[in-house]
Design goal:
Helix content is 12%, strand content 34%. The chain is built from 1 helix and 8 strands; from the N terminus they run βαβββββββ.
């Protein structure tokens, strides 16, 4: 299977940086080191595979980055942005929308509300 990879867009990078920086989790800065050179591939329209361009890693476990990045009702569509981790690096970006119709665009950083896990 051949996958098509492209450079991360500035909007996607800004969204990831917003979520990671708002979380204020020690060591998570490694996730966004050299993020602008990461590669992206569409698994589906709202799930993107990420191939990081850095060898920097965090000690966070595999799975979702430990925050909730909600897209409140003031945005065009509601849902949650999920950043997936594998091997201490970002491996995916997902827009888990909760409306009847799919979103037309990724939310802007100012349209999300980041809440640490457990709150």
């Amino acid at each position: 299977m051949t996958e098509w990879w492209r450079t991360i867009s500035s909007d996607e990078a800004a969204l990831i940086r917003t979520v990671v920086s708002a979380a204020n989790i020690p060591g998570s800065d490694a996730l966004v080191d050299n993020l602008d050179a990461a590669l992206m591939s569409h698994a589906t329209e709202w799930i993107l595979d990420v191939y990081p361009s850095t060898s920097a890693r965090t000690t966070l476990p595999n799975g979702p980055f430990p925050v909730h990045a909600y897209v409140p009702s003031r945005a065009d569509h509601r849902g949650e942005i999920i950043i997936w981790l594998t091997g201490g690096r970002i491996s995916g970006l997902e827009y888990a929308w909760t409306t009847d119709e799919p979103p037309e665009r990724w939310p802007a950083p100012e349209e999300i509300e980041v809440v640490p896990d457990g709150q």
